[in-house]
Amino acid sequence: MKLELNTTKKQLASSELLILSAFCKKKKIDISHWDKATTKAFLNIQSAKHFHGNKDETFFFNMTKGLTVMVIGLGEQKPLNAESIRKAIALAFNQLKASNKQIEINMEHFMPATDAAHYFQAALESIYMSDYQFTTYKKASPQILSKIVMQIVSLPKKDAQTILRKVKSLGESITIARNFVNMPPNELTSESFAKMVDEDASKLNNVKVKILNKAAIKKENMGLFLSVNSGSAFEPRLVHLTYTPKVVTADTKHIALVGKGLTFDSGGYSLKGSMVNMKTDMGGAATVYGAFRAAVLMGADIKISCLLGMTDNMVNSIATVPDSIMTARNGKTVEILNTDAEGRLVLADVLDYACDQKPDQILDAATLTGSVLVSLGNEVCGLMGNSQKLIESLKESAKNCDEYIWQLPIIPEFHKDMKSPIADLRNIGSSRFGGSSKAAAFLENFIKNDIPWAHFDIAGVCDAQTHLPYCPKKGASGLMIRTMVNHLLNG
Ligand code: BES
Ligand code: MN
Ligand code: ZN
How far apart are CA 213 and CA 194, in angstroms? Predict the structure, then answer.
């Protein structure tokens, strides 16, 4: 799909279909923002009286000169908010994606009076996020929209171009992250995943790529990470990316991102009852890589480290059995009572390694617990950490991006529940209750030097978000990348 700007007041002569908005006021259509000619043509249509501009209602009509007009009902949504704009644009996109017409959107119809830049960005995000199909394994590739023109006059051309460039970087990074999550586990293994990230990241400016193989991970004494990998046919990988901005001073901030990259989670010897879709257990790694990539392309002025712990969790005769006690990179011993609580083991060692990079902050993302779905549904991301200041800042970023996030507590009692009678820690609590928070309490044991740290439990939001029209009904959502990028650029 090609996305172009039209910063003039006139529609392009080549446009075949123009998208406008209509509101509904006291059950009556409100098109007071339309020009005279279009209003007249619309009112001339016999069936126009049945269209009230209700939310999500659409209406098509033709102008005498040949242009087709699609009207999207926005209901009583005045003033508009960014999320309603994303949803309206996605609705249009989804209805038109098979039509292959040259489409022009009159953005002025989808923007409140102030802060045009913010709303224009939201509309563009929606287009990039809606324009996604995972077609790698389909013989017949579905039709896609060839060209969209965004008509925008309330922003200086330069500003509109800058926003377009920014959202393009973001959109492409979300696409790459979604593709990783959607790839089948027989093709996306720890070894191939690391190779693909290497290939992609090597093309980025000012990024250094380092990949630790099994021998290097052994050298790092990552006993917990290795215990998860012990049943695998593949070597583990720790991908370590470093972005250094062009200008570095003593004040330059450094944020480390850490991602859970379980290319498949069978549960290990504590075998899962149902493991369909556990290919998505590398969603944390995909999310933080997507955020890293986008922030780099946007020229972030902070240093960013991105650490991805990759392995699968499988069974063979040397796979870790429950009751094992393993030693972490930081020296703590862990009684592994359930091999299905593996994500925290991988993260523990990678978080300890992250602390050694001496960042000012650490953010991790992981499809860590089924429990987060029980507490927050599959629409809301769980957020936990050791610094209320960092948490508040991330909540603010999520709000700016209209992504749902909710803080869950880590209380001393949860820490106590993760202690083992025969080792320093155990990898599960005494009951299912408070599962997400107890997993986070476990992770906190691997944060040193009081580095502010926040943990995103994305087990619910990583996959199918059927309530969001700009996310595919099935498969990876790409959510939380926007929130993380917002934090990396402004946090
Ligand atoms: N990868 C799973 C969590 C998960 C569940 C992600 C559902 C996406 C959807 C994780 O490794 C896991 O198995 N967690 C266990 C922990 C338990 C054994 C303490 C869980 O949540 O059941
Ligand atoms: Mn598991
Ligand atoms: Zn897992």
Answer: 10
Are residue 57 and residue 141 in the same domain, yes or no?
yes
Task: Report the CATH number at residue 12.
Answer: 3.40.220.10
Statement to judge: residues 465 and 336 lie in one domain: yes
Q: Which atom of ligand 1 is nearest to the CA of 270?
A: 18
Do the domain assignments include residue 137? yes
Is 344 one of the catalytic residues? yes
> Among 329, 351, 317, which Cα is nearest to 224's?
329
Q: Which residues line ligand 1 (CB under 6 A)?
A: 265, 281, 338, 340-343, 367-371, 428, 435, 459
- Cα 150 to averaged position of ligand 3 atoms, centre (Å): 41
Instruction: List the domain range (segments joined by +) for residue 88.
Output: 2-155
Whose Cα sits closest to atom 17 in ligand 1?
341
Same domain for 424 and 319: yes
278 and 359 part of one domain: yes
- Radius of gyration from C-alpha coordinates of the chain: 24
- 343 touches 456 (CB < 8 A): no
Phi, then psi, of 229 in degrees rounded to 5: -80, -10
Cα(307)–Cα(207) distance, integer angstroms: 13
Terminal Cα-to-Cα distance of the chain (whole angstroms): 32
Helices (H), 136-156: none
Catalytic residue, from 87, 344, 426, 482: name it: 344
Q: Look at residue 309 and tell me if it is in a domain.
A: yes
Does residue 160 belong to any structural domain of this protein?
no
Co-location of 15 and 55 in the same domain: yes
pLDDT by residue, tens only, the chain of 491 residues? 899 999 999 999 999 999 999 999 999 999 999 999 999 999 999 999 999 999 999 999 999 889 999 999 999 977 799 999 999 999 999 999 888 789 999 999 999 989 999 999 999 999 999 999 999 999 877 767 889 999 999 999 999 999 999 999 999 999 999 999 999 999 999 999 999 999 999 999 999 999 999 999 999 999 999 999 999 999 999 999 999 999 999 999 999 999 999 999 999 999 999 999 999 999 999 999 999 999 999 999 999 999 999 999 999 999 999 999 999 999 999 999 999 999 999 999 999 999 999 999 999 999 999 999 999 999 999 999 999 999 999 999 999 999 999 999 999 999 999 999 999 999 999 999 999 999 999 999 999 999 999 999 999 999 999 999 999 999 999 999 999 999 999 97
For residue 272, the ligand 1 atom closest to its alpha carbon is: 13
Q: What CATH number does residue 267 fall under?
A: 3.40.630.10
How many CA atoms lie within 13 Å of 313's alpha carbon, on the beta-carbon side? 32
Q: Residue 171 domain-assigned?
A: no
Q: Are residues 148 and 274 in the same domain?
A: no
Number of domains in the chain: 2
485 shares a domain with 382? yes
Q: Prior bond to 359 cis, omega within 30? A: no
* CA nearest ligand 1 atom 18, residue: 341
Residue 395 annotated as catalytic = no
Do 394 and 482 lie in one domain? The reply is yes
